[in-house]
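USER: I would love a firmer grasp of how sequence relates to backbone shape in proteins. This is the protein in question:
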Amino acid sequence: RVLFRSVVVLLHELDKMEAVELHEVATTAFQSDADLVAANPLARLPSLVRPNGGTLYDSRVITAFLDDLFDGGLYPDGVAHWEVLTLEATGDGIMDSAVSMVYEKRLRPEDQQSSDWIEAQWAKVSRTLSVLNDRWMSHLSAPLNMGQISVACALSYLDFRLDARNWRQGNIA
């Protein structure tokens, strides 16, 4: 998965890139890296192997852990906490659907690809972009938080992999 971008952005924002050792992993959806499987039975990225043992996985778990560890303040307290978590899940959901579309085209033989699947995933992205415009725009200009980082990572992925979909047209982003 590509969601680890948010982990790297968090580390940059907190000026803590040197605190975490990044490893390149040669893994695919069909052939998982053995070291990754040993750390994370799902063999998904990102995975954070802690020095004292144990592995954390999933971008949201890792970003929350690192934010807490480094006292980053990217997850506010109170009602705002739940808003940020929901916005973060919104960005991650856009990313999940977009990656699913890319994988369908990249990993499946052309005669097995489902245009219905691809369009259903795009419909999720498109609906969510509308909700970002209608509900979340005011949250995107607040002090930096993980919800904003997640959305920014998702939108940059749309630019990178699905720019031909012209997602910006009709959206404020």
